[in-house]
Design brief:
globular, alpha/beta, binds iron/sulfur cluster, 11 helices, 41% helix, 311 residues, TIM Barrel, 13% strand
């Protein structure tokens, strides 16, 4: 089976994408996964700690206050609820839990609340702690680290050249600044995005290689689940071949990084999910996601084991 002896360049991957029959592209990605990706299928969970009423205008997002989506909004759920979610996730065998909040970023008072929750979560469970808090300053990151946070999630969402067409209230560079500061302070970084937002082949490759440059510890792969009321509500859902193609490109560009099933997983049949795992998915999110249902943890564990992964 063909495989790359060294990391391929973006032009090389784009040329494969344009010329190789799809099944061969999938085989190449499968071989890359087999040779380089971890043998353990990594599961994490998330707790939606503040949801909706977001000031930002991300065109895909049900939580933006700019769109009428009927998304259920709630304020900060409190330390106790975060600690309970961590205990439950830990008991189900999940390795890590992420606190997720809507919004552009956090005020210092909100960071106080999150730090208190992290303290409660660490004292009541041994689970690793992650957080997805939007744009976070270096000073805030220092405080979060001291409170026990190990990983920061911040998606670049799409190809850098496309970002400003999908969100105008913050920039790609602002996201990168959060990611860079987190890296410099020794955090693990989880960073990925959404496929199915109208990206071309060139933009898909650009996205995959922007991620390679960031070198995240985990890449969440969301498949757009078009939400009525958002500007992308009328997008067609991706067909399985485009999903597999995107996973293959992400895998070939990022051979050793966990590629994580995230939003949109529930729209796939088990057979489609099986094919995604074959091509390159090797991580998942257990339990419900933010505004769309997640995969059933038991289903995904079974599929991962069937594919030969330790779970
Ligand atoms: S993706 Fe995040 S920042 Fe953008 S609208 Fe949704 S919650 Fe707000």
């Amino acid at each position: 089976m063909k495989h790359f002896e060294s990391l391929p360049a973006a032009e090389e991957v784009l040329s494969l994408l344009k010329t190789l029959p799809r099944e061969e592209l999938y085989e190449l990605a499968h071989e890359t996964t087999r040779r380089h990706a971890p043998e353990r299928f990594d599961f994490c969970a998330i707790v939606s700690a503040r949801q909706g009423r977001c000031s930002e205008d991300c065109k895909w997002c049900a939580q933006s206050a700019h769109w009428k989506t009927g998304c259920e909004a709630h304020g900060w759920i409190g330390s106790e609820a975060c600690a309970k979610a961590a205990q439950e996730a830990g008991a189900s065998g999940v390795r890590r839990i992420g606190i997720v909040t809507s919004g552009r970023g956090q005020t210092d008072a909100q960071i106080d609340e999150i730090c208190a929750a992290l303290g409660r979560m660490s004292s009541s469970s041994r689970i690793e702690l992650c957080a997805s808090l939007g744009l976070v300053t270096r000073e805030q990151l220092v405080r979060l680290k001291a409170a026990g946070l190990r990983r920061i999630h911040c998606n670049i969402e799409t190809a850098p050249s496309r970002f400003s067409r999908l969100c105008t209230t913050h920039t790609f560079e602002e996201k990168l600044a959060t990611i860079r500061a987190a890296r410099e302070l020794g955090f693990e970084v989880c960073c990925g995005g959404i496929i199915g937002m109208g990206e071309s082949d060139e933009e898909l490759v650009e996205f995959a290689f922007a991620l390679r440059e960031i070198a995240p510890d985990s890449i969440p792969v969301n498949i757009l689940h078009p939400i009525e009321g958002t500007p992308l509500g009328g997008e067609k859902r991706l067909d399985i071949d485009r999903i597999l193609t995107a996973i293959a490109v992400l895998r070939i560009a990022n051979p050793a990084t966990p590629l994580r099933f995230a939003g949109g997983r529930r729209d796939l049949t088990d057979d489609e999910a099986r094919r995604c795992i074959y091509v390159g998915i090797n991580a998942g999110i257990a339990g419900p996601l933010l505004t769309t249902p997640g995969a059933d943890y038991d289903d995904d564990r079974a599929l991962a084991r069937e594919a030969g992964y330790e779970v």
